[in-house]
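Dig into this one:

. . .
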Amino acid sequence: MTATRLPSRRTGVPRGARPHRHDGAIAAVGLGCGLVLWGIGLGMHGRQAPLPGAWVLLPLVVLAGTELLRRTAPRTALPVATAALVADQFTTGSVATVVMYTDVMYAAVLYGTPAAARRIPRITVLVTVATTVGFSAWLQTVESLLIGLATGLVTYAPASTGALVRNHRDAAEAARLRARQTALLAEIDRTQAVTAERARMARELHDVVAGHLSAIAIHSTAALSLDDAGTSRDALAVVRENSVAGLAEMRRLIGLLREGDGEREPAPAPTLEALDTLVEQARANGAAGGLGFTLTDRRRPPAAPGPGPGGALPAPVELAAYRIVQEALTNAVKHAAPGTVAVELGLTDHTLDVRVTSPFGDRPGPRAPGAGAGLVGMRERIALLNGVFEAGPVAADDGTGPVWVVRAVLPVGAGGAR
């Protein structure tokens, strides 16, 4: 197994990494140029230096070695290069040594730690000022200012350039990260939107189709099992009515799916004003099972037509309440024992209360199977509106037996409108 070098937390460079090929090329070029300058006898300090001759090659070779570490170990390269540059001042001097030192200074800021990138330019400013003041006090000549200028060019100039390049590089990396995060968030939003839309369409398909198909299944079973022409005719009439209504609901859903493509206008969503029709349809579907249906709407005071006391309800609340009643009536037609199914609506300044009560127990005759998807869909609808949903058997108020109660409390905002 090959060991993987982990990157340093501070520099991002793998620990123990080999010198970059570009760094090797820089070191080779710098060393070659220094050897050529030494070969032709071109120095910076003349032959009166304390260490003349081949001593100039020692700082040159050390600087070339630090060039190999400029990217992988800048914290080591800069102090060694600084010592070599100081030693070069006691030899005949080489321009190649000075140039390579400026590159090491630049790399120490660019590839070093963030703390070093902030600290090194400040130190070079202090070194430049101290050098200028010290030589001015010692030499007391105008030429001492040139020494300070040369010190700034060798130290501060490459350090500030490295800091500038590093800032631009960090800004570009931050922009890339932001773009990547934005794309990731957009993909998450798209996935969530698709999931939410699929769940919404699943609820709509179940609510608008399951009731009609359940009635068709129950009455077609009755028509096949009973040898009575009148009963079969009535059952087939209910089957036809539910088939037509189911097709109309399917067309409405198709219109919703095609909304925005310019082909057709989607049919309006049902509202609570259509509950009378919904209950009448349930009464026709449940008659064979001995079910009766009542509707008590307390949203508006007696002899006061129009919306409830708070004005028109929000469209999402109306649709959710209508679907809750529709699914509860469908479940009653499929599962309720003979008796009366009661639908009650109440409205306060802040909530709409929907309650559907049906007899709970065994029932004679054909039944349509259920998978529990209706209850899941009702809970999802109420959760999307931050409402409260309850469903289950409870004891009847009059003590006649258990009843199945579906109750939803939907917030409608201050005053019942928004």
